[in-house]
Amino acid sequence: MTDQRTDSPQHNHQMQQQEHQMQQQDRPTPQQAQQSPEVHPDTPAWLDGEGLHLADDQLKRKISNKPVSASAISGLIDGCPAKFTFTSLLADTVIPKTPDDPRVRGTIFHRACELYYNIAPQERGEHIDFERFEECKLQALDENPDMEDDPGLRAWLESASQRFCSMGPDSTDVTVARYRTDNGTERPATEMKISLHLDGVRRRVFGAIDRLVAASPDDPRTVIVDDFKTGRKASVYSEHMRFADFSYLRQQTLYAMLLEHDTRTFENGWNPIGGRLLFPLAEQVTVHDEGSGQDMQLPMKNGALICLDVKDESHRKRTLEEAARTSDMLDHEYEMNLYEYRPSNLCAWCPLARICPAARISDRENAQQAAAGQPDAATLAPAIVCA
Ligand code: SF4
């Protein structure tokens, strides 16, 4: 009689195959996943044991037409697809924006910068004009009448503006490039939108560049890609860091590749020679010391200006591969109508934390507090339910 050990490779392989078959049998077919749960026929989306599903046809169309962007790559590859889909399509319908929301604050600060750098160079002057920046800041606030009187928001914006204006000439006294929009209009390159195809990525790739800076008086094609960041912590990416976060470098590399292929302004595209992250509020920057193998935190007084190499071949290859994977994921998710969970220690900070069956919430006090502060089932119900 053959002694078939239960931990033999053959046995394990058979078990894995059976497990895989059972998982496949349990998975919803695309047809099943197209149907919303009968108990909540009008809800635009629902969660079950597998992930998030969309019931609303308009939302499905948005996924069908969604281009690949830096935030989609981060949300789908680095983060949780269910969370990303909820936050990008549904969260705003049930979670009101508040003046202390970092996204609200960041948007208003970005708008102030956009207004300031849209002013003609001869009018704006060579050096940063504090009074003009203040006017732009107030205009950006005026555009948000629901928020503008909030003292916390006003104090934060004041601090961000002052710190930005004090960052130094490399950050503030720049010549903004000019570009042609899709309809041929020439304008300053702030909030510059580009949407086109990159090799190997099936969907269109989209980027919105905060500020494109002219880098050579002799060649208007030569530029630096700037991005404003409003976080208090910054880091200089190294793959050897303890918490290596490629997302900002990926974003700037993606923008550089889009610029090279953008022929609206120059028939040979742009020549981006670098990227920069401007962190006016940064109080510390983490850098990795290759010699000691340690990460170090450097305190900052006047924010941080971080320069990035957007020509690095390995980063470009990785960026393009991740863009292609994101495109394929969007196709697959749309086809299956399934946006899977990817639980992590960050679940406590996810707006679905209180209804998600896969949420991983640790016992740590800050995680418990964060999870308790997320919207409850009743608040979320008009947008999403747990089936
Ligand atoms: S709680 Fe976690 S697993 Fe669930 S949707 Fe949010 S991030 Fe994803």
UniProtKB/TrEMBL annotation:
Which Pfam families does this UniProt record tie to the protein? PDDEXK_1 (PF12705)
Composition bias of kind Basic and acidic residues appears in 1-10
- InterPro entries per UniProt: PDDEXK-like_dom_sf, PDDEXK_AddAB-type
Q: List the residue ranges of the region (Disordered).
A: 1-49
Keyword terms: ATP-binding, DNA damage, DNA repair, Helicase, Hydrolase, Nucleotide-binding
UniProt KW Coiled coil keyword? no
> Residue ranges under compositional bias (Low complexity)?
11-35
Gene3D superfamilies to which the protein is assigned, alphabetical: 3.90.320.10
In its keyword annotation, does this UniProt entry include Magnesium?
no
Q: Write down the superkingdom of origin.
A: Bacteria
Q: Per its record, what are the GO molecular function terms?
A: helicase activity
Instruction: State any GO BP term from the record.
Output: DNA repair
| Residues covered by the PD-(D/E)XK endonuclease-like domain | 68-357
This protein is called PD-(D/E)XK nuclease superfamily
Q: Taxonomically, what lineage is the organism?
A: Bacteria, Bacillati, Actinomycetota, Actinomycetes, Bifidobacteriales
